[in-house]
Amino acid sequence: MSLHIKPMTDQDVWDDFIIRHSPGAVFQSWLWGEVQKRMGNTVWRWGVFDDGRLEGVYQVVKAQARRGVFLHVRHGPVIASDRTHYSAVTRHLKELAIQVKAVFVRMSPRIADSPNNRRLMEHYGMRPAPIHAMDAERSWVLDLDVSEDKLLSGMRKTTRYEIRRAQKLGVTIRKSTKLQDIELFLSLYSQTSKRHGFVPHEGILEEFEVFAKQNQAILINAWYEQKLLASSVILFFGGQAIYHHGASLPTKIPASYLVQWEAIREAKKRGMQVYNFWGIAPPNTIRHPWQGITLFKKGFGGRENISLHAYDYPLSRMYWFSWMIDYWRKIQKGYS
User: Fold this and answer.
1) CA–CA separation, 35 vs 33, rounded Å?
2) Is it true that 3-133+308-332 and 138-306 share their CATH fold?
3) Beta-bridge partner residues of 293
4) Cα distance between residue 279 and residue 204, in whole Å
5) How far apart, in Å, are the Cα atoms of 291 and each of 29, 190, 192, 287, 294?
6) Which helix (H) or strand (E) is 109 found in, with range?
7) Which of 103, 173, 209, 239 has CB 3.0 to 4.6 Å from 68, enough for a Cys bridge?
8) 108 pLDDT higher than 70
9) Contacts of 132 (CB under 8 A, 6+ apart)
10) What is the pLDDT of residue 336?
11) How far apart are CA 30 and CA 211, in angstroms?
């Protein structure tokens, strides 16, 4: 066996490998790396070659936090089959982390949350990260291989009723891939974050610009009486449509229901196999801040999809200071 880790420079080869082996790993997609570069972050893309065959890839982002530098491999690494390749990957990441003086390495491969996979991470010196499930490791997905009538019949009765009520009330849907229209979303998103008390995501403008340019993102807006009531940013990657960001005004007009239905219809038109509603709250967590949105998402029908939680590779005593802060924030905000 001749194992080599080399930089990757071909977008088509990269994305093809991910789509074949981990289609839900949007944060390992080439375009996501381009988003990170636009935000000023350092990005590395590495390939694992075994006897000349590409057997794994991992996109690494150098994250600069107040508590120090760490390396982030979101939704990765993506390994074809041989799990022993994790040994070479973790060793390489450790060497890279030491070079850039990182406090720790964090990775979250999109593999099943099973005892065997947890042992796999622990075998290579990793420990569960103290953060909440920020990368949609517990998500709600809807299979799209049935007719629209079947999709509607599979919804909760209330959800189906609200979609039809929005249509009867005259809510208008407008779709856009124009960069200037994202400003409308960002304004609504800012109001939503203040109302619900969550920290808004950074880089939404860059994300939309990069993905929309490749026809892999769309903005879906719901208008009523010339007022924007609800808006969503939908990404398309690996046969999935991903409901990545949403915003809305408090109103009795069920605009958000119609936005999601039109996003599902758009996904079917594009030949997507799955509509991914993204993260949901775990069961029996009454205080969890995602409880309301989880009820909303599950109303459209579908199934739960669970992947492994993020794992950390500590490299400095400073890691434990970072661990305590992240753990405290998770408890304080009701994520656990």
Assistant:
1) 5
2) yes
3) none
4) 17
5) 29, 20, 16, 8, 5
6) strand 104-109
7) 103
8) yes
9) 330, 333, 335, 336
10) 67
11) 10
3-state secondary structure of 1: coil
As a three-state string, the secondary structure of 218-237 is EEEEEEECCEEEEEEEEEEE
- Compute φ and ψ for 74, nearest 5 degrees: -75, 130
The per-residue DSSP string of 34-96 comes to HHHHHTT-EEEEEEEEETTEEEEEEEEEEEEETTEEEEEEEE--EE-S-TTHHHHHHHHHHHH
Of the candidate ranges 77-86, 215-224, 253-262, 308-317, the one whose mean pLDDT is the lowest: 77-86
Query: Residue 324: phi, psi to the nearest 5?
Result: -65, -40
All structural domains of the chain with their residue ranges: 3-133+308-332, 138-306
Contact 60, 73 (CB under 8 A): yes
Distance separating alpha carbons of residues 177 and 211, to the nearest angstrom: 9
CA triplet 214, 27, 256: central angle to 5 degrees? 75
Mean pLDDT of the chain: 94
| CATH fold for the domain made of 3-133+308-332 | Aminopeptidase (3.40.630)
Alpha helices in 148-181 (DSSP H): 148-153, 157-169
In the numeric block, the tokens 């570069």 are attached to 37
Q: What is the pLDDT of residues 198-230, one digit of tens each?
A: 777 899 999 999 999 999 999 999 999 999 999
The CATH number of 138-306 is: 3.40.630.30
- The 3 state secondary structure assigned to 70-87 is EEEEEECCEECCCCCHHH
- Give the span between the Cα atoms of 25 and 190, in whole angstroms: 27
Q: How far apart are CA 235 and CA 32, in angstroms?
A: 11
> Each residue of 136-171: pLDDT tens digit?
999 999 999 999 999 999 999 999 999 999 999 999
Q: In this structure, are strands 240-248 and 3-7 parallel, antiparallel, or unpaired? A: unpaired
What is the reported pTM? 0.94
